Amino acid sequence: MIEVLNSVPLSLMRRFDRLPRASGWLLLLDAGEPVEAIVQAHRAALDGERPDLRAFDGLETTTGHYFRGVE
Fold first, then answer.
1. Contacts of 64 (CB under 8 A, 6+ apart)
2. Cα–Cα distance for residue pair 34/37, rounded to 1 Å
3. What is each CA distance from 8 to 16, 32, 51, 61, 63, in whole angstroms?
4. Phi, psi at residue 10, to the nearest 5°?
5. Which residues, including other chains, have CB under 8 Å from residue 36's CB and lie 6 or more apart?
6. DSSP string of 23-47?
7. Which among 13, 20, 30, 62 is placed 20 to 30 Å from 68, CA to CA?
8. Phi, psi (5° rounding) for residue 62?
9. Whose CA is closest to 59, among 19, 8, 5?
10. What tens digit of pLDDT does each residue of 45-70 get?
């Protein structure tokens, strides 16, 4: 497993419609985050449904370089 360290947590959920299909994801959550709402959003996305992204409204996140092309 590769762990990427960043000053802002990585999250791709705001762009879930651009993610490739997957049978599961590994979530690393910090204390104080709305864990139940974040897990429900990911479960909905895995089930092909539109997730409720309100849990991410107060969280500062980044997509890192996931959507950047390889140079």
1. 4, 6, 10
2. 6
3. 18, 15, 22, 6, 9
4. -85, 135
5. none
6. S-------TTS-HHHHHHHHHHHHT
7. 30
8. -135, 155
9. 8
10. 889 899 999 888 888 888 888 888 77
* Tokens (6 digits) for 46: 């895995």
41, with CB counted inside 10 A (0-12, 13-18, 19+), is: buried
Distances (CA, A) of 57 to 13, 23, 62, 65: 11, 26, 13, 21
Residue type, 61: T
| Distance of alpha carbon 61 from alpha carbon 33, whole angstroms | 12
- Predicted model pTM: 0.73
Write the CB contacts of 19 (distance below 8 Å, at least 6 apart in sequence): 12, 45
